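call fold target=Adenylate cyclase
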Amino acid sequence: MEHIRDAIEKQKKNFILHNIVRLREMIRYLPQKKLDLFREIPFLIHVNSPEFPAYVKSAGDIFGVWNFENSGFAKDISTKNPHAAKLMKMPVNDPAVQAIYHIGSLGTFTQSAKSDFDFWIIIDRSRFDNNRFNALQEKLNLIIIYSRRQYSQEVSFFLHDAHNLINNQFDEGDEDEIITVPKMLIKEEFYRTFIMVSGRIPLWAVIPTDLDDETCMIWKKHALENREFIDLGMLKGIPIDEIQRGLLWQICKAPYDPVKSLIKATVTASYIEFPDKKNQIQGFFVTA
């Protein structure tokens, strides 16, 4: 089984390189003021201090993003703010957030000065009581208000439980869209466009998508020996009825942004040419 571990490690490096390229493209076209905000947001989620925005009084242990203190974002803000550097040294025994990903147009050819910041915040809901969960939601709402007032930037947070995502069960933040958009297409868009900001790497990024179920479980078992990874569910194919519903959704959205809808509809329609059960949504896996 050593070859599996070696392949996973190699693919982790491939993914990290891919993610760096996406981040560089995003930075290249993002105005400086909005780039400053993008760098600040994960820090504001990680800490909870009255000296920084989005402080939640008596919030307890709502703070902490898994391994954030070792990220490039943490190092960047620590060099600019001594107090932030001090906070980074505080131990976080039970981080509230397992991962932060950005989903959408940033880092793609559709990025523009008007692009929203849409973040998926991944948690383990079983480690939250109601008070902790509500406090985290309050902190995220405060960041949204801060971003709008100080930077004129629209920010959205979609709070997801990792275990629910495995079965394509999306949480409250996506309620309006889930009614219309097929759930598998939500996950498809996530895997196709996400930029990892901080936290744990989705297993999908390091495991081949064409494995049978038994072999896939073996790969997952080996990968999850490393806490760097998190299981958000695989995505091997999209049924034809889901694709058709996705196309109808884009037709409904077209009057508001016809170019964006055309691009998304074209991507969705491209899956029709594959047989239903063999329609593979390819990950980052490279066999060479």
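return ok
The beta strands are 99-102, 117-123, 155-161, 195-199, 201-202, 229-230. Confidence is low (pLDDT under 50) at residues 173-179, 275-280.
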